[in-house]
Amino acid sequence: MGEPKIRTVLGDIEPxxxxxxxxxxxxxxxxxxxxxxxxxxxxxxxxxxxxxxGAGGSAVVQWTPLxxxxxxxxxxxxxxxxxxxxxxxxxxxxxEHYAPHWRGIEDQLAFLFTADLLQxxxxxxxxxxxxxxxxxxxxxxxxxxxxIDSHARVTMAAAAIAHEDTGAPIAVHLELGxxxxxxxxxxxxxxxVRPDRVILGHLNRNPDLRLLREIAETGAFLAFDGPSRAxxxxxxxxxxCLEALVEAGHGAQLLLGGDTTTAAARGGPGMPYLLSTxxxxxxxxxxxxxxxxxxxxxxxxxxxxxxxR
Length: 309
Fold this sequence. Notes:
Helix 3 (106-118) packs across helix 4, helix 6 crosses helix 7 (235-247) and helix 9 (273-286) crosses helix 10. With 309 residues, the chain is α/β, with parallel strands linked by helices. It has helices spanning 42-54, 72-82, 106-118, 150-166, 180-190, 209-216, 235-247, 263-266, 273-286, 288-302, and strands at 6-8, 11-13, 21-25, 59-62, 85-87, 89-91, 138-142, 170-173, 198-201, 221-225, 254-257. It has a six-stranded parallel beta sheet with strand order 6-7-8-9-10-11. Helix content is 39%, strand content 14%. The protein has ten helices and eleven strands. The protein has one domain (13-302): Metal-dependent hydrolases (TIM Barrel, Alpha-Beta Barrel), CATH 3.20.20.140. The longest helix is centred in the middle third of the chain and has 17 residues, at 150-166.
């Protein structure tokens, strides 16, 4: 076995180089079902990274998957210019985000995901072109609301194949924080993925403490991401959720992220909010050492891979 590395858009780095990490965010994103909410401005994205760096950040993991305007070439450029590490995703989001021609069968999707991780991406998602873009460092898939629909079953199976071929972690968008146990049962029991190679997102949107402890007992990483918004107020529950999980012995599985996904969100607190506002607030409850682990040590383990090829 080799030494685990984190695959950024500029190449592989040692886990210790990652530093303070926003474990779930978006610099670029666009979907036909979210008109007018695109993130597609490279200058704004660069300024966001610089602001995050100014607040003490050194790495951002972008969960924007295939077909939703990842802009991999631009990610590499702004990462180089700002000095902030960027880890990008392959994979597929929920079915609603895609036109019919994007939907595929398990083996076809697995091939795309694996190639993204090992060979590099197609320039600006031109699937007829030559692969010459930066490589992805994780696989992103999505569950449905309180369920795993047919699209999710296909994409999760494809993600499991790509994970087996590469070792890359699988990050899961949980719709409003639901169906986490169902997702883990599917990925682990059916698809054979190791629990600690799964990252479950949006758990702050379903702040059931008993359920969160049960989810943590599966062994997955738990991502708490996104500042409060009008449709899912989360910040006031966040400290209680994290404190309960730390007290139950799950502190090493917790990740924090900003999840800035829309133009409206970019006009709000943005990426620095995670470090300038939430970090000191949470540190008063959990302690500096615990918060530092969530921002540094935990993501360094979650995104590190002993790349198979």
